[in-house]
């Protein structure tokens, strides 16, 4: 999560990179490097959407500045709750005192309940937009044109945060319903990573790794991402980090840091 976003520059995966000190934070003491590597992109995305924006860069897709909303005592529904951003957003919302409804497919239920979901909706059996009403905040970690379907689940005065807002076409409906639709572009932040590190070290927030691949097999990791139904993050292992090759076939079980298992 270095100099992100870097529009117009050549980007890629590398073993070594120079970095502004302000983008960096010390690795959480109780996480190995694989799990620490899974945190920055998704963790900062969830943090800046839900807790603290932390920068003044304008989102070019909307005229107003994104503002996180108070979560204590509120109801929050997270679509795509098992993915990289979703599973961390769930935990941060719980940390802030929200009641959380997690939306994902069948196989993720035990995983999400372990992370603290108060309610689970299996979207393969139930459409949340048909059954849920009066939610204070919907975080759509999937995003895209389909985000508008969640507007009917939100109370007047509530909010919809699509993590991927491109293609959203429901602004008129949102205005009619009195719902705020807002997104932001995540930015690098060493200060916020340090705050996340404290929550990870305390065990209040956990990061899950879906699968790992050696740097030389980045293309295979992308194929895994394209297959979907991910639990947590996919990690590329560099140097002496040991890659778990189970990620190359099917969907592996989630990998927790050693000290976190069973908690």
Instruction: Enumerate the spans where pLDDT stays under 50 for 5 or more consecutive residues.
Output: 243-253, 259-263
Cα radius of gyration in angstroms: 18 Å
Instruction: Give the CATH topology of one domain.
Output: Rossmann fold
How many helices? 8
Number of DSSP E strands: 8
Helix-strand sequence: HHEHEHEHEEHEHEHE
Give the CATH level 1 class of one domain.
Alpha Beta
* CATH superfamily membership of one domain: NAD(P)-binding Rossmann-like Domain
Question: How would you describe what is shown here?
Answer:
The chain is an alpha/beta fold and 263 residues long. The chain has a domain at 23-54 and 66-207: NAD(P)-binding Rossmann-like Domain (Rossmann fold), CATH 3.40.50. 26% of the residues lie in helices and 16% in strands. It has 8 helices and 8 strands. Helix 2 (40-50) packs across helix 3. The longest helix is centred in the C-terminal third of the chain and has 13 residues, at 190-202.
Topology of helices and strands:
Layout lengths: L32 H5 L2 H11 L24 E5 L4 H12 L3 E6 L4 H6 L4 E4 L5 H4 L3 E6 L13 E9 L8 H7 L2 E2 L8 H13 L6 E6 L3 H10 L5 E5 L26
Parallel strand pairs: 1-2, 1-4, 2-3, 4-5, 5-6, 7-8
Helix pairs in contact: 2-3
Provide a short characterization of the protein structure.
The protein is α/β, with parallel strands linked by helices and 263 residues long. The protein has helices spanning 33-37, 40-50, 84-95, 109-114, 128-131, 171-177, 190-202, 218-227, and strands at 75-79, 99-104, 119-122, 135-140, 154-162, 180-181, 209-214, 233-237.
